[in-house]
Every structure is written in C-alpha cells, then in structure tokens.
Amino acid sequence: QNQQSLGKGGLGPKRLKNFSTKEDGILCSAYLNVSKDPIVAVNQSSGSYWARITAYCEEHNCPRSKSSLQHRWGDIQKDTSRFCGFYAEVERKNQSGKSEDDKVKDALQMYEGIVESTFKFIHCWYMLRNEMKWNEWLASMSASNGEQSTEPAKASTDATLPPRIDRPNGRDRAKKPRTRLPAALPLSACLEVLQKMSMDRNAYEVRVEAATKEEAKDIASRSDRKLALQEEQLQVQKDQLQIQRELLELQKADREERVMSMDLEKLSPWVQEYYINKQKQISAMSLRGDGSSGPRGQ
C-alpha cells in the first residue's frame, strides 16, 4: 500500500522499502505531538491535519507521502489497540510471580493464538502505552462500543480512520449533532465482533489445552520408553553377572577336578600330604553340598 500511494500521489521521494522501526517511531511521535485545534476542527478537513503529520515526519527524516502515512498509522492503530486489550486481559488475571516481561510474552502469545498472526508493532506499543492521548482514545473507543473489548479498534479499519482517532473532546462536542447517527450504527457490528472474539478466544484456549494434554502424553511416553530402556540395561547387566558367576564356577570345578584326579605317587611326600588335604577338603564340601565338585564326588 505504501508503494502504491507514493507512485500515484507523486508526493515526496519514491520509496521502495517498507516502513522501518525508526519510521514507525517517528509516526507515533507525530501522532502524540501534532494535535487538532478544537475550535477550528469543525470546519477543518482531515487533509489539513494529515498535512501537519506529513510535515512533522519530513522534519524528522521520514519523507513519506500523506497517503502512505495514513495507511501505516491505520495498521499501527488497529493492531496495537488490539494488543492493548490482550495485555490488559493478562494483567487482570494477576498471576503471582509474573514479571512485566512475562506478561508481555503471554499477551504476544494470546495475540498470535487468537489473531493468528505475529504482532509486529511492539515497538509502537512501548511508545504509546503510557501516553495520555493514546489511553484517552482507547477509553473513548471502549465507551463507544458499550463495553470493554480486547479489540477496541476493530471498527477502525477503513482508510478514513486516522483523522478520527485523535479528535479532542472539544471537537467531539462541536460535531456531536453530525456524529450521533453514525455512532449508533456500529452497535450490532460491535456485538458481532465481541461474539467472534469470545469464540476465537475459546477456540484458542481449547487449542492450548489440547496442546498441553498432547505434550503431557508425549512426556509420559518418553518417560515410559526411558524406563523400559533402563530395565533392559539392568537385565543385560544381570545376565552378564550370571555368566561371570557360571564361568567362575566352571573354573573352580575344573581346578577341583584336576586336584582329585592327580597321581600322587610321583610326588614328594610333603607335596603328597598337601594334595591329600586338598582332596579331603573338596570331598567334605561335596558332602555338605556347598562345593562345585559335589556331582563329581558322587
């Protein structure tokens, strides 16, 4: 939209790049610093107001066209006011132990889950969140909708929105006869928006709950697999130990077999006496049943 506006309007140098974070900041600063005169506002055209916005941006090295700035501010206003609603909802939960950064992360996650897109104007939100002008506009939008909504700027998506957003109270009173009828028009639309947001939020919570359950199942499955693997490893160790024991028993039985079958006649008397004693010990253990040569002795 920015590129097309510049090409058709022919105002300012032609820019091929999207708005940068710095340019967004300059536009937000212009919104906060350029005000309307409540006395002359009744007869003042939106073009005059946006001419001053454009001039402010040019003075601060943001030479965009009026149309480009209007479209960009419309996007900033719509998405940022929506994020304000999500952040306010996170704050209302008043969860203990949550830092401001945690709340911002929760609001970003809620925004992405419900709106199904990433909030790309967080830098604008930090600039606007504590400014009186911005908060007064949010309050006026909530009042006009009849109840507080997490999307206070839902009805502000048309291209004529920017001249309306920063209208001071004096101008509102001056133009009340002209705006009263249109103000009643969005009531049904607001109710539809609130219903849709409630449905979207419920769907989001269902998705989060389902994801949490699925994650819990996955963790339990991984834990079961890990436990099964540990049990298999333990069984392998037991089997290896049993094999080692059997090998030791075989080696012992082989030694006893050699002792019992030795030809003692060829040995010297004192060596004969040693092996005779060993044979007696092996026989005694075999009779008690605690030796490995028991079956051989029988």
TrEMBL record:
InterPro entries noted in UniProt: NAM-associated_C
Domain No apical meristem-associated C-terminal: 118-282
Pfam families: NAM-associated (PF14303)
Swiss-Prot/TrEMBL keywords: Coiled coil
Chain segments annotated as coiled-coil in the UniProt record: 194-258
Region (Disordered): 145-178
Protein's recorded name: No apical meristem-associated C-terminal domain-containing protein
The species this protein was found in: Panicum virgatum
Classification lineage: Eukaryota, Viridiplantae, Streptophyta, Embryophyta, Tracheophyta
